[in-house]
Specification:
By secondary structure, the chain is mainly β. It folds into four domains: 83 residues, Cholin Binding (left handed beta-beta-3-solenoid); 58 residues, left handed beta-beta-3-solenoid (Ribbon); 83 residues, left handed beta-beta-3-solenoid; 120 residues, Lipocalin, CATH 2.40.128. The strands form 14 sheets. The chain has an eight-stranded antiparallel barrel. Strands 7, 8, 9, 10, 11 and 12 form a six-stranded antiparallel β-sheet that branches. The protein is rod-shaped.
Length: 418
């Protein structure tokens, strides 16, 4: 049985050396119920029943923490990874705390710590000292380079300085400051070239016109073509291009793919309908696009069968006037039949609207005289298909007076007279 020392001051609480032994007192008596690690004079020491015990060594657990102990004192220089119960545990100043979570640096190596241990299940990015590192199995992986999610990693460190295209899984992705944005669409400037991007991917197959700030530019195979100085077709509209940009200063007619278009601010004017003159020729424009190159005469190239022609030298003729009216003269066996009215033109067709009557040549009963008579008709419109600027194809069979036999057949071709 050892000695029990009392302090002369019955109210004393604290440490006191007695005969080279260090004790801890509470209210003048040695705290025999106190066993564990306590702070004394800047160190963490081991008390056994209130007395400092310098015989304790090794890794010891007290109150949920594990201490690295030498001669009864915590080894504060013991910082790093130590094996404890078969796992790598992180000790800081000689103490392992199971609630510790952070990235730590041990002799230049980085470790991802969770619950005081290296998290060997962790594969990903985590910051340390303002740098983001990539971890494999909880340890910084210097060998990893590539895209992790949307983040560029090079040699295990996030690269925030790279802006450009990065090839990943066979596609070129646009990265800005080392990050891939799959919502990015439009133009980006790389090495002085404007390049098309769609959903963050280099749109190298795209050719057409796209918006770029307040401008519109022509892109060819994914790159703005600053050498382009002729009209282009994009998404159903024609654009006047100058040095790769839509020429907002251009108003008037232009030619694209052998067809005339009317432009306003460099863009096909779909609101424009009318007659224009381009290079000394007149063109009928509908929705900004030329549909007929000439307002004048077309004649029936196909003609009618020889049996119905009285005068084989005269073919049926369509006269179009600039005021939107027409005269359509058809040659029938008995003579001519003339229709008049207005015409309407769309991109691919032309409709002659009749005035509900026609002028028909007739013969007298004795067959010796020919006279012209106005005849009421049920035919309200005559439709042609426009095959090109100079050619029409009749789509409506023309009959007159009591639904007589067809005189001019469907599919008859009319060509423009020079």
């Amino acid at each position: 049985m050892g000695y029990l020392y009392f302090h002369r001051d019955a109210h004393f609480t604290g440490f006191k050396w007695v005969k080279d032994e260090l004790y801890y007192y509470v209210d003048g008596s040695v705290a025999e119920d106190l066993t564990g690690m306590v702070e004394f004079d800047g160190e963490t020491i081991y008390l056994n029943k209130g007395r400092f015990d310098d015989s304790l060594n090794g890794l010891q657990e007290f109150d949920g923490k594990v201490y690295s102990i030498l001669n009864g004192k915590t080894v504060k220089s013991a910082s790093g990874l130590l094996d404890y119960k078969g796992e790598k545990c992180y000790f800081l100043n000689g103490v392992y705390s199971p609630d510790f979570k952070d990235v730590v640096d041990i002799k230049g190596e980085k470790y991802y710590i969770v619950n005081g241990k290296v998290d060997t299940t962790f594969n990903g990015l985590a910051p340390f000292a303002n740098i983001v590192y990539y971890f494999t199995d909880g340890q910084w992986d210097r060998t990893y380079s590539g895209l992790f999610g949307n983040i560029l990693v090079e040699k295990g460190i996030r690269n925030t300085s790279f802006t450009g295209f990065y090839e990943d899984e066979g596609v070129e992705k646009y990265l800005e400051n080392g990050s891939f944005d799959k919502t990015r669409s439009g133009l980006v400037t790389i090495n002085g070239e404007k390049v098309s991007v769609y959903n963050g991917i280099k749109n190298k197959n795209y050719t057409g016109v796209i918006q770029y700030g307040n401008d519109m530019v022509y892109v060819r195979k994914g790159i703005v073509d600053i050498t382009r100085n002729v009209p282009v077709l994009s998404d159903g509209l024609v654009y006047q291009i100058k040095n790769g940009y839509v020429d907002y200063n251009f108003d008037g007619a232009t030619m694209y793919d052998s067809r005339v278009y009317y432009m306003t601010h460099g863009i096909q004017d779909v609101e424009f309908n009318g007659l224009i003159t381009y290079k000394n020729k007149k063109y009928l424009i509908t929705a900004g696009e030329g549909v007929l190159s000439y307002v004048g005469s077309f004649y029936n190239k196909t003609g009618v069968s020889k049996k119905t022609f009285k005068n084989k030298d005269v073919a049926p003729t369509l006269e179009l006037h600039e005021d939107g009216t027409y005269v359509f003269t058809d040659r029938w066996a008995e003579g001519t039949v003339t229709f008049e009215g207005t015409y309407k033109v769309t991109k691919n067709s032309m409709t002659l609207v009749t005035n509900g009557k026609c002028m028909m040549e007739k013969k007298s009963e004795d067959g010796k005289k020919t006279y012209t008579e106005e005849v009421q008709i049920n035919l309200t419109q005559i439709i042609f298909t426009i095959t090109d600027y100079n050619n029409l194809v009749l789509k409506t069979a023309i009959t007159c007076e009591n639904d007589a036999a067809t005189k001019t057949a469907v599919s008859d071709k009319f060509v423009r007279k020079e």
